[in-house]
Inverse folding.
């Protein structure tokens, strides 16, 4: 068995066996199989796909490439540890809101998160906007922190799903992000490695998602739910819209500020709806409420009474973050240039292409073209309108936060082209399409 034969087999459209997948992932983990061969296999999968059995085998191979946490060992036998994951999106800062809500209600949340992929932002990059924030959490600290404050968010380490960590970064720079089996295996290997008993997935669909039609999004959600069930996890998947950005802010520090506003009870309506819906699902799977709608109402209460906010502060302090920046968000990184994109005519907003807004933020420096690229946490875009809103000529569509004049001009052009204004009223976008339980 060798890597070339496996690449050729998949290139020619044949299904790989679990043994072949295990061989390849094991070799990639120990570096006997190099990046360029892994990139070749990823591209072969991009064009030829994988069936559900292959995707499950890939998930388990990446899961077994490293250590698996057992956070339940730190709790009484009936304690349920919960987790949440999004398939990515533009302006998607829900983890920063959902996790503290759920943890503040006594349900431990242990989460492995990722960095930005393509035009989709990453939770870890947003958290690193806070000075001193440490997202490399060793297994011992992961369990201890979960026991002490009920909330931990970290990245993959050498111990946890290391094969996925390597492949995740490689996909970002080889054009192989939007591949259903690679997405499912990446997400679920991290989720299973973190050891949660119950997992809620936020599967995005639309222009700003890697699944742009509802059929594929439903397939991805169902596949991940089945992978989780086969590993004895309680599962739920919310399919949410990503045709326009979530909330107003797109960019790392900008999104962090918006998450803080939301935790303080003043968040955008769409972000609050999605965050509390996801929290309701988690609270239901965790046995805290009889049904998800009751959980959503409980989540809204935690935003209103300040308990979720206090849990977020505990979490930041536990991972070394500067609480002064959290308590005073104007101390977070701020761009040197802030300028508007103006509406060329009055009317109703018909479209705001989330993918184009996300690409604008990446090109400003808020994302990566290469694995080694540094992130500028200050840059991004803050929208002023949503689809179906009325706007007058010369009113701001958005504000661009930039540290480079040329990048500012490019972002202005892209956002202008991404926004369509109609002469007649348009319908607002439905945020939540389906929930698979």
């Amino acid at each position: 068995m060798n890597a070339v034969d496996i690449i050729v087999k998949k290139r020619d459209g044949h299904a790989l066996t679990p043994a072949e997948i295990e061989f390849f992932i094991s070799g990639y983990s120990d570096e006997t199989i190099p990046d360029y061969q892994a990139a070749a296999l990823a591209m072969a999968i991009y064009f030829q796909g994988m069936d559900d059995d292959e995707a499950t085998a890939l998930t388990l191979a990446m899961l077994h490439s490293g250590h698996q946490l057992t956070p339940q060992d730190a709790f009484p036998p009936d304690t349920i540890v919960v987790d949440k994951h999004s398939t990515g999106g533009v302006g998607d800062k829900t983890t920063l809101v959902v996790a503290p809500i759920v943890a503040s209600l006594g349900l431990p949340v242990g989460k492995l998160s990722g960095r930005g992929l393509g035009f989709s932002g990453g939770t870890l990059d947003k958290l690193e906007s806070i000075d001193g924030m440490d997202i490399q959490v060793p297994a011992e600290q992961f369990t201890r922190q979960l026991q002490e404050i009920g909330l931990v968010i970290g990245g993959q380490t050498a111990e946890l799903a290391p094969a996925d960590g390597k492949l995740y970064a490689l996909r970002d720079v080889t054009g192989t992000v939007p591949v259903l089996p690679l997405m499912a295996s990446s997400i679920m290997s991290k989720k299973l490695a973190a050891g949660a008993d119950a997992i809620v997935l936020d599967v995005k669909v639309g222009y700003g998602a890697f699944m742009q039609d509802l059929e594929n999004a439903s397939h991805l959600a169902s596949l991940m739910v089945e992978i989780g069930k086969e590993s004895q996890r309680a599962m739920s998947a919310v399919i949410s819209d990503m045709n326009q950005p979530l909330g107003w802010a797109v960019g790392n520090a900008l999104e962090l500020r918006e998450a803080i506003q939301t935790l303080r009870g003043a968040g955008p309506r769409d972000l609050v709806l999605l965050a509390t819906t996801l929290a309701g699902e988690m609270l239901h799977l965790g046995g805290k409420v009889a049904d998800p709608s009751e959980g959503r109402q409980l989540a809204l209460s935690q935003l209103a009474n300040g308990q979720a906010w206090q849990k977020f502060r505990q979490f930041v302090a536990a991972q070394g973050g500067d609480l002064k920046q959290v308590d005073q968000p104007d101390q977070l990184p701020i761009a040197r240039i802030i300028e508007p994109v103006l509406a060329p005519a009055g009317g109703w907003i018909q479209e705001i292409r989330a993918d184009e807004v996300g690409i604008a933020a990446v090109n400003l420096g808020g994302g990566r073209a290469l694995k080694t690229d540094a992130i500028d946490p200050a840059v991004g875009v803050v929208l002023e309108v949503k689809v179906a809103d009325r706007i007058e000529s010369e009113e701001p569509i958005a504000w661009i936060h930039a540290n480079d004049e040329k990048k500012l001009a490019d972002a202005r052009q892209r956002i202008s082209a991404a926004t369509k204004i109609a002469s007649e009223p348009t319908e607002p976008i439905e945020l939540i399409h389906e929930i698979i339980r």
Notes: The chain has a mean pLDDT of 93. The first strand starts at residue 82 and ends at 86. DSSP finds 17 helices and 13 strands in the chain. The two ends are 39 Å apart (CA to CA).
